[in-house]
Amino acid sequence: MIEDLKQLIIQEDETMTVEVIAIGGYEEVGRNMTAVKVGEDVVIFDMGIHLDRINIHEDTDIDRMHSLDLIERGVIPDDTLMKEVDGKVKGIVFSHGHLDHIGAVAKLAHRYDAPLIGSPYTAALVQKQIKGERKFKVNNPIKSLNPGGKMKLSKDITLEFVQATHSIPQAVFPVLHTPEGIIVYALDFKFDNHQKVSPPPNYKRLKELGRKGVLTLIVESTNVKNTTEVKTYSERVARNILEDLMRGPLYEKTGMIVTTFSSHVERIQAIADIAKKSHREILFLGRSMERFCGIAQSQGILKLPKNASIHGSPKAINRALMKADEARDKYLLVTTGHQGEPDALLPRIASGKTPYNVKKGDNIVISAPIIPNPTNAANRHIMERRLKSSGARIYSEAHVSGHAGREDHRDFIRMLKPQHIIPAHGDLSMLSAYGELAEEEGYRIGKNVHILRNAQAQVFNTAN
Questions:
Q1: What does the pLDDT look like over 415-432, one tens digit per residue?
Q2: What is the pLDDT of residue 133?
Q3: What residue ranges do the domains of the chain occupy?
Q4: 235-395: CATH number
């Protein structure tokens, strides 16, 4: 393992001052975790789960499972390699609150004597994640840092949160200011100037960092292979699509369901805004709906109308479904389960396992894409087939991506002008596609673009 960790060296000088260690997320989209070592100080970014493994989704409860079992199954990052990293962890920093970035915190954080740091919304989600843990006792202090704020982590490292936009509120670009140079961690983001719950990215600050000198950029590669949508559309486009799709069905004498990511608070806000003027009561249903939307509402990020309510427990969900089934034209159901996961709410409704029965003429709006893997595609197909067999009308793909497109990445590189780039958050084909894009911008794979695999490291010598 040591050989893996030390295999990549930029210069021949033996004074190695900055090291980026790929722990998870460099062979898959998920279980993100990266460590950055500056001198004797270490900062960890993210502790996520791999949502594709063992049918894990937003409503899955892994609180009672052991970390070693989850590591063996490939669900959470294998951080055992950190035992071989000679340094003191000064902080565990979270870029945003998606489960592929915070979902493993309760399983791993207790191994490190370091604070957990995120934006206020992210920090609250981290706290919620820890509170539900049944296997390990996690006593790490939780600190919140506002976008635009700075925090001293050690004598030589200052953390800065630069405002980003993604498909969850208060996503940030964590930035490390070190004597060896600036390190930017960009998992995940899009350039969206038209969100209602989040301000635009701080382009001015990104350009300032570029002028100061960025040593390395650690950056997501999720959508770089996509050559059709090269700049990601704003959430404003999704709002317009939803408005067009929902306008008619809202006023029909039929049942109506909208499904989306429970963490996509911007989308949740749009659905609520569109439906609030209708005669329908809006029921947000699902364990994760309660978690993500409840916290967003308590922090004033999500502003639900008076005719909306959130139901998270099985009993509360069943009561709401019974009520809606009896007067189906008076309710709008907003549910989890858009991937067709068998134990999520919408697939259970489709299978007839709930008090709510889909009937002919009901309208189903799916405001989420199929997360690409064979299992999801199969589950989604089965769910849609069942809904159609009940006579439902389905409107699928009412969605825009939360990830930067190829040309957005090109703009990002030109803003930051990093000396080195490390693509992450993807399989080898995604990482390589980012490398090809970087080469178009004058970089070279193996020289200043570094393709890492899990358990590998990139060492930088900044002495010269």
A1: 999 999 999 999 999 999
A2: 75
A3: 2-230+402-460, 235-395
A4: 3.40.50.10710
